[in-house]
Structures are given as structure tokens and as C-alpha cells.
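Customer escalation, tier 2.

The customer says the design service returned an amino acid string that "doesn't look like it belongs to this structure." They asked us to rerun it and document both sides in this ticket. The original C-alpha cells are below, unchanged.
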């Protein structure tokens, strides 16, 4: 992406990039959290039963290591490689498709799907922005996802 904002993100130190995406993911979630008090259907629910039934160590392993690793491959790396690199679809469409795929696999509740779509937008955008030689998009997006899930595991 050639806009100034994306170029600044691409040039950002990797640690700052991860922190920025984490902050952005929480900022995008804030309106949803505020709406949850008015609309019960937007409540997140419990999330994945397999993860929720595990002890803390299991939740951290599955939710903060294994899950983000697999999901980064399936929902950021694969869509970008297939839809953009191979099929040459426009990047905004690729980002939307990536976030949509991510969201529908998190269909624990309507609210969770909306949250997952917003988070998926952040992850896909981050992947696309850092997708270039020496930029490590897979690792950085995985790290954002892993940290975000780790925080959730520790707070629940």
C-alpha cells in the first residue's frame, strides 16, 4: 500500500509496529464494547469451548501460540498470497476477504463475529503493510494475535 500512513507503518520499528497494532485493535473494539450494554446480541459469549475448558497453561498454549500460528497462516498469509499475489485482486478487497474469513471462524456469537472481523481487519492490514522483503509480516502479525489472546487468557 502506497499511502503515507502505510509507508510510516512499514518503516516503523517492529516492536512499535506490534504495539501500534495492539492499540489499534483495542481502539476499534471500544465502540463495540460500549454498544454491548445496549444490545445483548453483541455480547461476546464465552468464545471457543475447547479453549475455555482448558486450564490457564492450556489456554495460553492453544489460544496464544497454536491458534494464532495456524490462524495467521490460514487467514492472513494464505489470502494475501492467493488473492493478491496470484489473482492480483485489489488490496482493500483482500483485506476485507481476510477479515471476513477470520470472523466466520469465530462464530461464537454475533458480537464475537463483529469483534473478530474488526480484529481481522487490523491483522490483515498489518500483514499487507509489512508484506515485503525483510519485513516479517507473518511473525509480526502472529505476535500481535498471540499477545492479544494471551492478555485475554490471563484476564479470564
Amino acid at each position: 500500500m502506497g499511502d503515507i500512513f502505510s509507508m510510516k507503518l512499514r518503516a516503523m520499528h517492529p516492536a512499535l509496529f506490534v504495539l501500534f497494532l495492539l492499540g489499534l485493535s483495542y481502539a476499534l473494539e471500544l465502540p463495540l464494547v460500549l454498544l454491548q450494554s445496549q444490545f445483548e446480541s453483541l455480547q461476546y459469549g464465552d468464545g471457543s469451548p475447547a479453549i475455555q475448558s482448558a486450564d490457564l497453561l492450556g489456554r495460553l498454549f492453544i489460544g496464544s501460540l497454536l491458534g494464532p500460528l495456524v490462524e495467521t497462516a490460514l487467514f492472513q498469509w494464505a489470502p494475501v498470497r492467493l488473492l493478491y499475489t496470484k489473482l492480483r485482486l485489489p488490496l482493500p478487497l483482500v483485506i476485507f476477504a481476510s477479515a471476513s474469513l477470520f470472523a466466520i471462524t469465530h462464530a461464537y456469537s454475533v458480537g464475537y463475529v463483529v469483534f473478530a472481523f474488526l480484529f481481522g481487519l487490523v491483522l490483515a492490514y498489518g500483514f499487507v503493510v509489512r508484506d515485503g522483503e525483510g519485513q516479517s509480516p507473518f511473525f509480526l502479525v502472529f505476535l500481535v494475535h498471540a499477545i492479544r489472546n494471551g492478555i485475554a487468557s490471563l484476564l479470564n
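Tier 2 assessment: The sequence is consistent with the input. The chain has one domain: 13-155. Residues 13-155 form one domain. Sent an explanation to the customer and offered a walkthrough call.
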